[in-house]
User: What shape does this take?
Amino acid sequence: MNTKENQIQLLRAEEHDKPVIRNLMQYYQYDTTEYNNEDPSPFGLFDYNYLDHYWTDHGKETEGRVAYIIKIRGNLAGFAMVNNFSVINCDSNAKTIAEFFIMRKWRKQGIGRNVALRIFDTHMGGWEVKQEKENLIAQKFWESVVKQYTNGRYNKQESYEPKWDGPIIYFNKQ
Assistant: This one.
């Protein structure tokens, strides 16, 4: 590992970390308005209805929810959220990247790639990575990461509403 990789921490978020993720979620959701045209609430906040589910027994055990905090040299750099809400592999063991956020100052430095690969290594089985149809940057990023991770052994298909509206990359990690 190089020096930067040694400084990247991928920490499983505990319930006491929920306010940190809720706060970072505002930046993430603001960034995504460029693609999804969502507006904040009348209070100026973006809602994320599923955050609490990451720390309930049902969320953890049945829905496979796991949240991570990403730090660089001890400073907050983003978060990632995983669940088992699969569109293609309707197998309860399939994992999906539900949300993935790296703060702008840390982007284009290999940090997102490093974190994504470590998350894939953490969870065995089938994987799906869904991207918003309008977010071409995310599509390019995820295809590159998955191609590297799987040595090109992955599939990609377009999905349409109501399940998902955009490309889905899927692969199996044994």
In short: The chain has five helices and seven strands. Strands lie at 8-12, 66-72, 75-83, 95-102, 125-130, 155-159, 166-173. The radius of gyration is 16 Å.
